[in-house]
Amino acid sequence: MWEFNNHSPIYLQIQNQLILKIITGIFKPGDRLPSVRDLAVETKTNPNTIQKALQELETIALISTQRTNGKFVTEDLKIIQRFQRKITEEKIYKFMNEMKALNVDLPTVITLLKEKAGEER
Amino acid sequence: MWEFNNHSPIYLQIQNQLILKIITGIFKPGDRLPSVRDLAVETKTNPNTIQKALQELETIALISTQRTNGKFVTEDLKIIQRFQRKITEEKIYKFMNEMKALNVDLPTVITLLKEKAGEER
Amino acid sequence: MWEFNNHSPIYLQIQNQLILKIITGIFKPGDRLPSVRDLAVETKTNPNTIQKALQELETIALISTQRTNGKFVTEDLKIIQRFQRKITEEKIYKFMNEMKALNVDLPTVITLLKEKAGEER
Amino acid sequence: MWEFNNHSPIYLQIQNQLILKIITGIFKPGDRLPSVRDLAVETKTNPNTIQKALQELETIALISTQRTNGKFVTEDLKIIQRFQRKITEEKIYKFMNEMKALNVDLPTVITLLKEKAGEER
DNA sequence: GTGGTCTAGACCACT
DNA sequence: GTGGTCTAGACCACG
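Above: the input entities. Below: the structure tokens describing the complete assembly.
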């Protein structure tokens, strides 16, 4: 479940995976997250690392903390949806720039995407 | 022209940009690259950084060094094309995984790509 | 009505709000305070938290407990007034230090205060 | 120079003091900050604490990091000024609310401020 | 020498 | 038991 690569810091990888879990509804609005300590055990990391991973999620209001009680996914669906859209758009944008830089035009990109999708069936 | 972020080492960012310039023919097969010194000035970096960036390009045979004469883009078109294909496929693959993780299906992806392309006209 | 932030303990925030209510006469001298239980319900907190909040109010004599009868605001007006003055002065003092640290001089402060007051009319 | 109280975390106190130094021009735009290690020695804290204090300053763009080179105050005067204004307004706003909650009206506040200022001459 | 990451481990306040 | 803070100390990549 939790596998990390060396290219980017562990805390960022954890952060991203948690964002994905919130965006895709694995962690639902209002859900209580596993405790910092539990996440540390689960990911085989140090609680401090988890803390760092969660910190930014709080400043962007995806989660909130109830002291002595735990951390909770925001109940504001709009925040989550806005985030989902923002991240998707960023990735689309970045991808298109990369393809442009590689001189691959849109029809070719679409062909390649369909091919790949076909392979996986 | 040369802008760097803090998330990945500068030498890798330079490396990638040089690869792109070769792949897309801004640096053509057989061309002489700017000198390490000039690249360092142009990118406002240390010559050591440029050296490191070029090193791997040489080991993967995209460029070759002629002793006192400078560094040259390979004249072997196949190497360049193989590279172009490899990088494109990697990016396609990574992109599809990201979209899958975000629960965005292929038709939607294609729609979004076309939208973005439309905006830029 | 009762909103709390995470930066300071809830019991202190409740304590401060109760002090304000006494100082400004929302709870008048001699009034009976709502029961610990009721305050807990009203603030959606634990009765222990309310207890802790009230404890210090008692040691500084702003309120007193009548065994089985409840807690009452002191009837000694001087105590209340002394408190009002003390808190006001503390806040004034702190505020002036902050403005000094920000290099904002007194005339500017007064201008800004008047502006703000004007906006709210 | 560096004295801390127990009411709020050390890293926040350091953060605030650094913000003040930037806002008031003790650290000028473009200046290099003391290194993390040096600040740690100076404040008699751990480098991690300094890191935490500086982190948010970076996300709000008051400072930027040049890897292996140090951290620098932004050269964008507008960011600094915007910040100065924002912080001042927040403090004014908070102060006025406190005074209102204490039933102290504006003329009285101004009188008290002038008194205090007079005392310090 | 610079910042960045991570761990282990401790202590604290709060409920 | 919860999150938050802090320290000591280590290792790393970068330039």
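Note for the figure: The mean pLDDT of chain D is 91.
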